[in-house]
Amino acid sequence: MYERNDGSHNRTLERIVRATPWLLEILVAVRSCGLPNSYLAAGAIRNTVWDFLHGRPSAGPTSDVDVIYFDPTDAPSAAEQVLDAWYPQFQWEVTNQAVIHRWQSVDAARAISPYSSLTAALASWPETATAVAARLADSGAIEFLAPFGLTDLFELRVRPNPGASNPTAYSLRCREKRWQLRWPSLCVL
Which helix (H) or strand (E) holds 67? Predict the structure, then answer.
């Protein structure tokens, strides 16, 4: 199921992130908010790469800013309120991936087991190009999680995740998101 990340895609993604001021600002905020094992994920990363590949600068997030983390204790977190206070211009969505199996079970109308790690939870998302996360380490390095690799993201390919928790979510998201209107070079499978 997991594809090894291509080193050249990792380097390109790091260059894109470092050249996008609002994205770096968000990565600093995520690192500072104190969540365990936290990353910026989904559209903030995906859309920035697709903008770059379409030759346009990223204007910032077009919807919520997804922050993911993994805390099996499921202790309440004030991170979303902290991020809202620091950066009210963004619509934050902070989600503990250790417990997403609960609402995925409801959506899929079947029991889904808890995930063992942040990467395993990320690998349950509906499409492969969105299952990408980044964080700014204390050392200043940018670290990525991409359980399916970065090839689909960089080849502008939207494909369903065969192991998604809810296979019908992919087609619904494709209809709702209408990605090809903004990024006409996308190949939506």
Answer: strand 65-69
> What type of residue is 23?
L
pLDDT digits (tens, 9 = 90+) for 150-185: 999 999 999 998 887 777 888 888 889 899 999 999
What is the token pair recorded at 18?
């470092």
Q: Identify the sign of the CA torsion 85, 130, 132, 155.
A: negative
Using one digit for the tens of pLDDT, what is the confidence trace for 107-151? 666 777 788 899 999 998 999 999 999 999 999 999 999 999 999
* Beta-ladder partners of 133: 41, 145
Measured distance between the N- and C-terminal CA atoms of the chain, rounded to whole angstroms: 18
Separation CA 163–CA 185 (nearest Å)? 26
Helix, strand, coil % (nearest 5) of the chain? Answer: 40, 15, 45
Strands 133-136 and 187-188: unpaired
